[in-house]
Amino acid sequence: RADGRALRKLPVHVGLVVTEEEPSYADMASLVVWCMAVGISYVSVYDHNGIFKRNNSRLMDEILKQQQELLGLDCSKYSVEFANHDKTGQVLNCQSTLKVLSPEDGKADIVKAAQNFCQLVAQQQRTHSDLDVNMLDNLLSSTNGFPDPDLVLKFGPVDSTLGFLPWHIRLTEIISLPSHLNVSYEDFFSALHHYAACEQRWGK
After folding, report:
1. Is ATP-binding given among the entry's keywords (predicted)?
2. String of b and e for 14-52 (b: at least 16 CB within 10 Å)?
3. Range of 162's domain?
């Protein structure tokens, strides 16, 4: 918590994007728990093969275990949502919400949103001129209730986010780290420090 307060600015939503072929549940759980501990409100976990999402209960078990080890009873009640809106049970909570995403929550979600808008126009509930940034944001289901990511930590050698929320990261700061395997808290906090020091010009 003290580390989070020491930063000039803290991201509200952090995306953790793994581009490596062999994802580590323990290392990803560490990253999620560190995000919670410094006070980040929203965390998205993504790998391009959808392994974490398919095995979300295994990831949650590891997160719970590490929460107890690292944070003890400092946290109680942590609500976890998944992008497909399946609710898992109440877990522990430091006022953080987690979504586990896969490629279908990216481009496929934009296609679905476009289809839904076209249906609204066909039913004369909307006109084509109603489509704007806010309308598309509202139609996208995968990040419903989540702000756009302020920061993406991309792990691995691939110089791409591999389909992670392509609509939502147009203004996102992306920091690349060599690997999520055996990632240290120092690496994580150094990335947050880098984000806090960067000046975002919003295209100016």
Report:
1. no
2. bbbbbbbeebbbebbbbbbbbbbbbbbbbbbbbbbeebb
3. 1-103+145-197
Q: Decide: helix, strand or coil at residue 91.
A: strand
- Contact status, residue 132 vs residue 113, Cβ threshold 8 Å: no
Burial class (CB in 10 A: 0-12, 13-18, 19+), 76: exposed
Find the angle CA(182)-CA(165)-CA(185) to the nearest 5 degrees: 20
Residue 32, helix vs strand vs coil: helix
Q: Residue 90 carries which side chain, given as an amino acid letter?
A: Q
User: Do 133 and 45 share a structural domain?
Assistant: no
| CA pair distance 34, 36, nearest whole angstrom | 5
Task: Name 30's Cβ contacts closer than 8 Å, sequence gap at least 6.
Answer: 66, 183, 185
Q: From residue 33, give the alpha-carbon distance in Å to each of 101, 146, 153.
A: 17, 18, 15
The pTM assigned to this predicted structure is 0.80
62-71, 92-101, 152-161: which range is least confident on average?
92-101
Mean per-residue pLDDT, 146-174? 88
Give me 95's structure tokens.
């006022």
Q: How far apart are CA 124 and CA 118, in angstroms?
A: 10
